[in-house]
Amino acid sequence: MFMIEYKDIGWWYWLVTACMLSAGVAGYPNGFALAIGLTMFQLLHFMLRERSITAFPVQVRFWYLLLLLVALPQPLQVIYWIPTIGTWAQLIFGYCTMARCVSLFPWNRDQRFSVALLKRTFLSRPVRGNILQGQPPLK
Question: Crossing angle, helix 81-93 and helix 9-25, to 10 degrees?
Fold first, then answer.
């Protein structure tokens, strides 16, 4: 099912970022630097909007930025395929692998880490908002 949220500013940030990353993997390396710059701006915007550096949307953008920075050196640029494909998946289907990974950090969950939690986290349908809202209550 499609989950295109064109009324959300975050969705537009991700759209432009995905286009820049796509340009980068298509042979225009400045696309990577532009994506990093926009992600830094987006991170700052969400820190101010959420008024917290620990807010879940801020955490997702921080770890996304870190992934982009890790992939910046020429020998590692093949890694850019991961956020490029993942960002397009998030834009079109609402499935954000980064948010799902971040939701597993100990400070973002109140459930014990288990195989069942991994299955629920990565195999559950996308939800509007963030993945934390789709987690079942603590048993």
Answer: 140
